[in-house]
Structures are given as C-alpha cells and as structure tokens.
Amino acid sequence: MPSTAKYAVIVAGGSGQRMGSKIPKQFLEMRGRPILMHTLQTFHDFPEKIKLVLVLPQPYIAKWKQLCRYYNFSIPVTLQAGGKSRFESVKKGLEIISGEGLVAIHDGVRPLVDHPLIRRSFQTAQKYNSAVATIPLKNSLRQITDTGSKSVERSQFRLVQTPQTFNLSLIKQAYGVREQAEFTDDASVWEAAGHPVTLYHGSEKNLKVTTIHDLAIAEMLLSFK
Fold it and tell me: Can you tell me whether residue 58 is helix, strand or coil?
C-alpha cells in the first residue's frame, strides 16, 4: 500500500441506555479491559502507522483518562471532545487533523475490527477516495406499505458498517455543512456532497456492541480473533 498518511477517527459517544447500564457502553469491560481499548489497540497495532483521534463526550474524558491509568493503557491518541450528535462529533474529530491523506472513521464499539478489514478500507479509499464497509443480508426483507407489506429483493441491499474511509480533504469539505436528518453515517454525508460511494466487503464479526446480547457475542468471537 502506498505510504499515504493514514488517520483514524474513533467515535465513542454512547451512553449505555440500550445496554441497560449506568456505564457508557464503550467503557464496559470485555475480556479484561474496556471495549474501546480493544478497538483502539487494533488500529494502533496495524502494520502501517495510523494516527488516532478519539472523540468522546466532554463529560467522559476524565473517566477515560482514569481508565487508561487503571488499565495501564498508554497508546498515543489525540483526544477530542465531541458534539451533541455523531455528525458533530465526527466533524470535530476531522477538524483537528491537518495535512493530506486518508482517514478511517470507525465506531468505538466495534471492537472486532481486524487488520484485513482496515487494510481493505485504506486500499479501496486510496483508489476511489471512499470506502464503505458493507455485508450482504441473510434474512428475507419485507417493506411496510400503506396496505400491509411486500417482499423486497434482499440482494439489492447491504448492511453498512465501519470503518468508512475517505480522502481526508474531501471528507472534511463534505462535513462543512449543516447537519441534515438524512445524515445517518459518513457515507451519507459524502454522498450529499456529490461524491460516489464505493463499497467494500466488511465482516460479519465486525458487530456493533449496543446491547447485552451483542456484548456476549463479541466476547465469544474475541477468543477467535
């Protein structure tokens, strides 16, 4: 892979409500340390240097520093206070990166991301300026209509994951707009700026931990990582 500068913005703004926990989900322990540390460690250990930006809600930054001391977690990370929404948080994370290169934007609570996935994201973005991880659907789909529902061809749809990786200067420009309701992920912001979205193959293991059920599965899968 070319020696283009590589960055990763790790967004971790969860509150833990869907988890039924008083502790933000990114700080819940999984196999001996918080979920977020597993995510960051994987990016840090990538064979090609990736500069890491961690975006956390301002009230959680002190807690994160406390956890780093407790778990002796000291990988180099630039901390940034997030905004009221994911859009605002990503925007703030991008704003503190200077220069040119590629940037992977990743959910902090996807701890099972692996190096082949990260490599595919950067390789695809290097060639096409964008790279959005997706996986096919296994289950049948039905669309709700005014009169009931109808079957939908699942081969025409994909489940979207992160990392979503982009040309740094172009994604920063794309985020230089007011937030819209249709901005559900980084790809939608990129698309609204007039850029084509390039998909690449994600991973079924790369789940987002939002419930206790997800956490149990992630802990099991981690033993096979």
Answer: helix
